From TrEMBL, chain A:
InterPro entries: HATPase_C_sf, Sensor_HK_TwoCompSys, Sig_transdc_His_kin_sub3_dim/P
Transmembrane portions of the chain: 27-48, 54-76, 102-122, 142-165
Enzyme class of the recorded protein, top EC level: transferase
Record GO terms (molecular function): ATP binding; phosphorelay sensor kinase activity; protein dimerization activity
Name the record gives this protein: histidine kinase
Organism of derivation: [Actinomadura] parvosata subsp. kistnae
Length: 387, 213
């Protein structure tokens, strides 16, 4: 397991943790509190030297020094954060206010709290361990006990330092990148990934269509022509017919495969036509009532299409349905697709990956999936996608 | 018969031309995209067009759109559309053009059965309707309840009618006499409350309309 942050490292077993670099990184993080400390000192010094010439100048000099500190300390805090949390913080030019707040907090309080923490947790055990040297009047027994206590406290210090540094890091991250912003970025990157997959599927479909499929059709045609010239009932005629059948079967299998990869009618004619076609291929009779105001954005159409195909595949496989209905309409800017059947119900999202996969796909387009499938049926799958 | 072929895969285009010529048809032009198809039809005025659905420049459904446009412009022109997949939507759009007379929609796979393929083209050119068995199978699977009244043999006959076959062809396919086929057909039409139709092409449309409703 790889620890991404100091706080995650704390959950490891003691020996691997103490042997890792995390306690050292935590200590380095806290020690780096000296830099904003120096900056705070400079701000105070600027204000004080300004005060010698007049109170107004004190304010001006102090504010100028503060502004300068914000510019210097904010990137330093980002850099420092990487000691305990190497995951990059998304850059955000419009969050200058948050950065300024963080720097002011650091200058006022955090820097010295960091240093005091470090001094107490490390200084305490070190002083204890060195007490025989520092305090010559100590009895040998008391000195020995102090050394042991000091040495025992050092690992404890490692935990304390890492915990505080980790918590400080989490705080800085929360200030610089509020939870929502990172989630948005994750959603966007997931949407990009889905788009990339979709593009790839289209490319594969296109390649198969232009390549293997055309060749198989030509092969099948050539075999059909060859069959014409052979005397009926002869051995060569039988073999050519056999090869012809195989070519036709390969074509049929390839066609099914390609259909699963990408639906051409969806791209050409939109969701309603694609749903009609997929319903037509279902072994269970399906009533389709899809009424849409025109073409919808491609990601919405693709997602809705997957919902319908997955639902129809599921109800054909299990559920004992004899009839199903697919409805689709746009209500207040949301596409609502429902697939209902009269089967035995009891569909469980926890079993099988189909429904979970659908929910994941819907999450990418900020849609919702709900399922009602009591034992005994009926089953109703509902997807809502903003469009 | 003079035919114009539109197919973007060279191998297949040449193969199709060779096949049709072998059966005594004249290939007036063999082109590789939809605009060229429209142009070739204007220039050569063929009896029939055989076209792929998906062609340049957009590789979506240019061939089908060109076919519909040509049908609108020359209602007497027979059009046989070939597709790598059967899509009911495409079939429906074709059947609606010019009342479904002289149109065909077949999977490309069917070219391999050369004799039947050339027969189908002949039927389309004669004003008939040809629908791929795959489309018919999908339509049949959708209308399960009323069709339950048909015997398995009658279902089989219904499927063959929908494909656009005449009684003689159905009889050959099922290895029965034409009289037996006629009896089956009468039973089917009675059971499904379809108006009796003697004209082959009207009969196909009645069955397709029933299946699609």
């Amino acid at each position: 397991m790889i620890d991404r942050t100091a706080l995650e490292a704390l959950t490891r077993r003691p020996l691997p943790f103490l042997g890792s670099s995390w306690p050292w990184r935590g200590a380095a993080y806290l020690a780096a509190g000296a830099v904003p400390g120096v900056a705070a000192g400079l701000v105070v010094a600027a204000a004080a030297s300004g005060a010698l010439l007049g109170p107004a100048l004190a304010v001006v000099a102090g504010l100028a020094a503060l502004a300068l500190s914000i510019v210097v300390i904010a990137p330093f805090e980002r850099l420092r954060l990487r000691l305990v949390d190497p995951v990059p913080v998304p850059g955000a030019p419009h969050r200058r206010g948050r950065e300024a707040g963080l720097v002011i907090m650091t200058l006022l309080a955090l820097w010295w709290i960091d240093l005091v923490m470090l001094a107490f947790t490390i200084g305490g055990p070190v002083v204890l361990a060195l007490s025989p040297v520092l305090q010559e009047e100590l009895t040998p027994l008391a000195g020995a006990l102090a050394v042991v206590a000091g040495l025992l406290l050092l690992p404890v210090a490692a935990y304390t330092i890492t915990a505080w540094a980790g918590a400080r890091g989490a705080m800085v991250r929360a200030i610089l990148a509020p939870a929502g912003s990172e989630l948005e970025e994750v959603l966007r990157s997931r949407a990009r990934l889905v788009d990339a997959f979709e593009l790839e599927r289209r490319r594969i479909e296109r390649d198969l269509h232009d390549g293997a499929q055309q060749r198989l059709v030509s092969l099948s045609m050539a075999l059909g022509m060859a069959g014409l010239d052979l005397p009926a009932g002869s051995e060569p005629a039988r073999l050519v017919a056999l090869a012809h059948d195989e070519a036709k079967r390969a074509l049929a299998e390839l066609r099914e495969l390609i259909r699963g990869v990408h639906s051409q009618v969806l791209t050409d004619r939109g969701l309603a036509a694609a749903v009609h076609d997929v319903a037509g291929r279902s072994p269970v009779p399906v009533d389709v009532r899809v009424d849409l105001p025109g073409r919808l954005p491609a990601p919405v159409e693709v997602t809705a299409y997957y919902v319908v195909t997955e639902a129809l595949t599921n109800l054909a496989k299990h559920g004992g349905a004899t009839r199903a209905t697919v409805t689709g309409l746009v209500e207040r800017g949301t596409l609502v697709v429902e697939v209902c059947d009269d089967g035995t119900g009891g569909a469980d999202p926890a079993r099988g990956t189909g429904l979970t996969g659908l929910a994941d796909r819907l999450a990418v387009v900020e849609g919702r999936l709900s399922l009602s499938s009591p034992p005994g049926g009926p089953t109703r799958l509902r997807a809502e996608i903003p469009c | 018969m003079r035919v114009v072929i539109a197919e973007d895969a060279v191998l297949l285009r040449e193969g199709l031309a060779g096949l049709l010529e072998r059966f005594g048809h004249t290939v007036a032009a063999a082109v590789g995209d939809a605009p060229a198809l429209v142009e070739a039809v204007t220039e050569h005025r063929p009896h029939a067009v055989v076209t792929d659905v998906r062609m340049p420049p957009g590789y979506s459904d240019e061939g089908l759109r060109a076919a519909l446009e040509l049908r609108a412009r020359h209602p007497e022109l027979a059009v046989l559309v070939l597709s790598q997949y059967v899509e009911q939507t495409y079939a429906a759009e074709l059947l609606e053009s010019g009342g479904g007379a002289g149109v065909g929609y077949l999977l490309k796979d069917r070219i391999g059965d050369v004799r039947e393929f050339v027969d189908a083209l002949g039927r389309v050119a004669a004003g008939g309707t040809v629908v791929d068995p795959e489309v018919v199978r999908q339509l049949l699977s959708r209308r399960r309840d009323p069709l339950a009244r048909l015997t398995p043999r009658e279902l089989e006959v219904l499927g063959l009618i929908a494909e656009g076959r005449a009684n003689a062809s159905i009889a050959r396919h099922l290895h029965v006499t034409e009289a037996a086929v006629a009896k089956h057909i009468a039973n089917i039409f009675a059971k499904l409350d379809l108006p009796p139709a003697s004209d082959g092409h009207r009969r196909v449309l009645a069955v397709l309309a029933y299946l699609r409703s």
